[in-house]
TrEMBL record:
Residues 143-152, 221-238 have a biased composition (Low complexity). Keywords: Signal. Pfam families: DUF4247 (PF14042). This is DUF4247 domain-containing protein. Residues 249-259 have a biased composition (Polar residues). The keyword Endoplasmic reticulum does not apply. Residues 1-26 form the signal peptide. Residues 140-259 are annotated as: Disordered.
Length: 259
């Protein structure tokens, strides 16, 4: 029974541990806070997703995202462009030129950055050491001219953006892939053979042992056996004396052993 309880405890703890571990890695769960507005995907892991933060400035959005998950690097505060760099993605926050009161949140994979961005543009915001990592030390040979979604009509990326379909909105990571844990219910056959926690596998229901093959019984010995055993081990049997023999005084002078 203790082993069965330990199995249930482990099953309950595993999802919690997974959720905690997921909360501590990756990037902010931006898709839960802002609507997905545009998507660009290509082969070789080149993905760019655009989210809109209405009536929020670039510094305000940068602060919100950094509080959700601390980035590896963050650019200095700027009203038009800010960059947050995470292990696998670059967040480019930019003021929407068509609607200056809004901030566009562009989430690019590192592959997308290497193949599209103008490295000289990024040098004005990102440290040289970080750029070396983004471009694998080959930023000078970058042929991209892209400078962000807000200026895509001027500095065109190699791919094209499109309004996300309903399927893309549902299946798109945004960024953080949320981990979910589940407890699989035992099959009926397995319940019958191995479920010992409780009836029908219920943790809070008392186990029904009426049909179990592992029930114990107390069997009273038969009369014949009890009579034999009582002669051998009864506490009322007179023990044999080991005291010295008693001498009987008389003319016969016999020594009689005490019974």
């Amino acid at each position: 029974m203790p082993n069965d309880w330990m199995k249930w405890i482990k099953l309950l703890l595993i999802p919690a541990v997974l959720l905690l571990s997921m909360a501590g890695c990756g990037s902010p769960a931006i898709g839960e806070s802002y609507p997905l507005e545009s998507v660009s995907t290509k082969d070789n892991g080149q993905t760019s997703r655009i989210y809109r933060a209405e009536n929020k400035t670039v510094p305000e959005v940068a602060k919100e995202l950094a509080e959700q998950k601390q980035p590896d690097e963050i650019s200095k505060e700027d009203a038009e462009h800010m960059f947050l760099i995470y292990p696998d993605e670059l967040y480019h926050l930019q003021q929407d030129q068509a609607k200056p009161s809004d901030t566009l949140i562009e989430v690019d994979t590192k592959e997308y950055v290497r193949e599209n961005y103008d490295s000289s543009f990024l040098q004005g915001y990102i440290l040289a050491s970080v750029l070396d990592d983004l471009f694998d030390g080959h930023k000078k040979s970058s042929k991209g001219s892209y400078r962000g979604y807000s200026s895509k009509d001027i500095y065109k990326p190699t791919g094209s953006y499109h309004v996300p379909s309903e399927a893309e909105k549902k299946t798109a990571p945004p960024i953080t892939k949320e981990g979910t844990g589940s407890i699989t219910k035992r099959s009926d056959s397995k319940k019958k053979s191995s479920a010992k926690v409780g009836q029908d596998g219920n943790l809070f229901k008392k186990q029904d042992t009426s049909s179990s093959g592992s029930t114990g019984k107390i069997i009273r010995s038969s009369d014949s056996n009890s009579s034999v055993s009582s002669k051998k081990s009864s506490v009322f049997t007179k023990p044999k004396s080991k005291s010295p023999p008693r001498t009987k005084v008389g003319s016969s002078g016999r020594i009689t052993k005490r019974r």
